[in-house]
Every structure is written in structure tokens, then in C-alpha cells.
Amino acid sequence: MTSIAETFSRFFVLSRPFLAGDEPVPVKCPHCGKSPTNPKASDEPLSLTDVANGLQRSFRELVDPVELARDARALFTLQNLCNIFRFILVLTMALVSGAAALLPKAWQLLNRTIHELAFLVKQTMPLMIACVEALNKTVGGLFLLIAMMWRDAKNPRPQPPQSVKALTHAKMPPRYPYLKEHASRPIYQSRVD
Asked: How confident is residue 141, by pLDDT bands cut at 50, 70 and 90?
């Protein structure tokens, strides 16, 4: 409990002027004796080197290599190293035996999956071909439409003159292929008795 209380008291001492709303007064930490560093108040934007130097400085304050090595030395005992080695050995054996048991099942699953995919492709092939044909005809029709419009825009056809006679049908006798002069077989006359 004392370490937690010390930690919170340290930050409370450093942040007390900000909580009270007073001007920040440089207060030294009662535990380490350091004063907090305030960045320079200037209108100039920080450059990348200033940011990198600030991060490096704060990292040096947070991580002390000597203290880190002292804490790590306490963890690396002979019994802990043996337990780590045993854990890695058991983990490796479990992975190898699990892979050996999984491979036959995975092979069966892969065979079933390939078989079902082949059946799916066989059943959906007519639908896919119909979709491709519809797309092909749509694109082809659009191409023909654009080509005809381009041809008409390049070489416009002359329009026939619109007249009243052109709108009415001429009274011409129909030509039948079975008239006497066009007939290739003898014409039989029906007898009326």
C-alpha cells in the first residue's frame, strides 16, 4: 500500500498548483528531488528534433537501465529458467502432436471441400453461362448502337422529300404470281355445272 500511496502523493504534489488554479510554481518532488520540466512557451511550432529530444528525455527519466537490470536479475533465477525451458518444451511437444493429429482431418476436410466446390460449379455453370451471354449481348448491342449512331453522324442519309402523294397509297393492281402470263403450270378452270 505504501508504494501506491507514494506514487499518488508524488503526482498530487506535482499537480497541486494546477488543481488550485494558481500559477504553476516549480515544485520539487519530495521523493526524487527533481523539478518537473515545463516546455518553453513560445509561438514557434515544435520541430521534429524537439519532439524526439523531449521523448528521449522522458524515456530516460522513466526507464533507468541499472534499475531495470536489478529488477530483471531477481527474476532470472535458476529455477525460473528451468521452468521457462520446461514450458517451451511442453509447448513444442503439444504443437507437434496437435499438428500430427490435425493433418489427416485437414486432408479429409480439404477433399470434401474440393468435391463440394466441383459439384457447385457443375450445377451453377448454366446460370453463369447465361449471365455471361446476357452481358455479351448487352455490350454487343450497345456497341452496335454506338457504331450506327457514329455512322449516321459521319455520313447523314439524304431524307426523301415529304409530299402529299408520298403519304397516300397508289392504286396499283396487285401482281399475283399465278396470273396466266406468269404461271409455269397449266391453269385449270373450274367447271361450273
From this structure: very high
CA quadruple 76, 79, 85, 88: dihedral sign: negative
Q: What percentage of the chain reaches a pLDDT higher than 70? A: 59
Alpha helices in the chain (DSSP H): 2-20, 48-62, 65-75, 78-154, 164-167
For residue 172, give the amino acid letter. Answer: M
Domain of residue 16: give its range: 1-38
- H or E element, residue 187: none
Task: Give a yes or no: residue 22 inside a domain.
Answer: yes
The tens digit of pLDDT for each residue in 91-132 reads 999 999 999 999 989 989 999 999 999 999 999 999 999 999
Place of cell 463440394: 116
Q: Is residue 1 part of a domain?
A: yes
Please give the Cα distance from 128 to 55 (Å, whole number): 60
The total number of structural domains in the chain stands at: 1
Confirm whether 117 is domain-assigned: no
pTM (two decimals): 0.30
